[in-house]
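User: I want to check something. If I give you two sequences, will you return the structure for each one separately, not as a complex?

Assistant: Yes, each is folded on its own. Here is the first sequence with its structure:
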Amino acid sequence: MSYAPRSSGRKKKSSRSAWIIIAIVAVLVVAGIIVGIVVSSNQVGPNPTPTVSPTVSPTKTSTATPTVTPTPSPTSSPTPSPSGSSSPSPSPTVSPVVAWANQTYGVFPTVAWSHQGNAVVTLPRLVGEDVKGGIMTFTNNAADNSDFTVQVFDQDGNQMGDPVIDVLGDYAGTVGYGLAAPEINSDAVPTSVHVTSSGNWAVEIAAVGAAPQGMGTYTGDKVVLMPAPANNTLVVNYGLVGGNFGLNYYYQDQLIQILVPFSGAQVNNQSFQLNAVPGVIAVHSGGQWKVSAAS
């Protein structure tokens, strides 16, 4: 009978210690769960960071290249425009005699043509306006010392004066057409030239304003622009061996003065009074000749 109180005291002690163990285990489990959550959340953060930086750097490099290539094209295109804008600058430097020739006879691009035998050459004409005159530089390689003639015709098929060239054999020189105002028909306009040749020939047709200008030494047939002279002009001709010499002077409104008739005479140190206006002289010569201001 004395054993009953001991057994009941042992049971109470063991049940209290069991609850303490369960509480400690629960605390450890909860702590492990919290630690696991913290660890897993720290592992997620670093992964997105490297994936963001590679995507940004390629995009910047690809967008920078197109902007560089268009830049040279705008900068190179303005370069020609300044050079083009400088082209009008020669116009103020045109001499008065060239300006007079351009206004009196007209302006057109130089044309060249070559042929063999007889042919008809059409003269240049301005659009909407007739060209009154020009100069023609001919070369002719004659066959068997045959005739070489050049005759100018107007729009109605009529001859305009005598042939501007009428020689035998080879020829090289410059002649003018339409330099004098037509005496019979003021509406006549030079439109074509008829060339008679048995060989090869070539012609370059240019505006009167393209002729050489001023005093100097020349050879053979030539058209020369003469600025307004301050005094007389001295014409000297050399080397006429069986050739001819003639000098015509054209000035305001295509007026003409025959200073030296076309003949075989030698002209030495002969002076002529010219008008104090720009003009042009046309010389037919078989040799060298010189134009200089009178002393």
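And separately, the second sequence with its own structure:
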Amino acid sequence: MNNLHVPEWSFWVMGLALAAFVGMFIQMVRRNKGIRRSFYAWPYTLWMIISTVVPLILIAYYALTDKSGSFTLENFANFWDSNRNMKTELLAQGFNPEELGLGARGTVNVDTLAYSMWMAFLCTGISLLLGYPAALIMADREFRLGSTIVVLFIIPMWMNFLLRTIAWMSLLEDNGLINTLLESLGFGKARLMYNSQAVLLGMVYNYLPFMVFPIYNSLSRQDARLSEAAMDLGANKWKTFWRVVFPISMPGIVSGITMVFMPSVTTFFIPRVLGGGNTEMFGDLIERTFLTADDWNVGSALSLVMMVLILLSLGLLRKVDPEGEGGSLI
């Protein structure tokens, strides 16, 4: 990280936040002649400023500046044209990029983003198709095993995310459990690892609970008398579902889509383990730009592009579910 230069003002911001916290503490104690209960929320506010707000400001700073600290939009141009830095270096050395076959725009970054969004779209769609019936069954008050299924969804989440993903390797690898079973049944080995299908499987497995629980939360809180009233008025079970149950669960659906889609776009460990380097998603690209290429400016620009997508997703959630009714996991 030799090219990284942390601006001095970032340390001033953290110092001023800490000083403001101490000053408000002293003033509040003097004014109220003691500590009010609401003051105990301030340490969390200070923590959010230091660990979240300041890093976001730094990312925006690096994305909008070059290595010398001057304002530039070149980093976003590098996102659009992945060969732009190489072309600039070749021109500085007196070479013609077009003669070396680098005249065309490099599409690696944009293609990786498009591929990541497509994989995230598939993961979200599959999670919705699998998760909605599961949430509907768990929320059924007449189904006695609903709470048991809830626990079965929660238990895998107690295990570390990395371990859950690595565990799939013992199932999908060439000498894994599934291929061993196929061979014992007289079938040949199947290539289950190091492809997009394996990555998609790992994504659905890890993010499915984040689709199930918001929908389950919305369905479990609905008033059963609404469905009973609809059926008393002549609606059958199918029409009752579409006109009563499904609209009530819409906040949970929107929340689940948001909670699955955005982590799916930015995931980087699952493609590395199950994709074996044959697939690269946007999270891998950001990590490689930061750690391997040691280019914090372009890496921050890539991160800022992803933040814009996250804000758009949150804006959609706020518009469809303004009260946040489907936002909790349990």
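Because they were folded independently, the notes below concern the second chain alone. The chain has three domains: 1-63, 68-106, 108-320. The radius of gyration is 25 Å.
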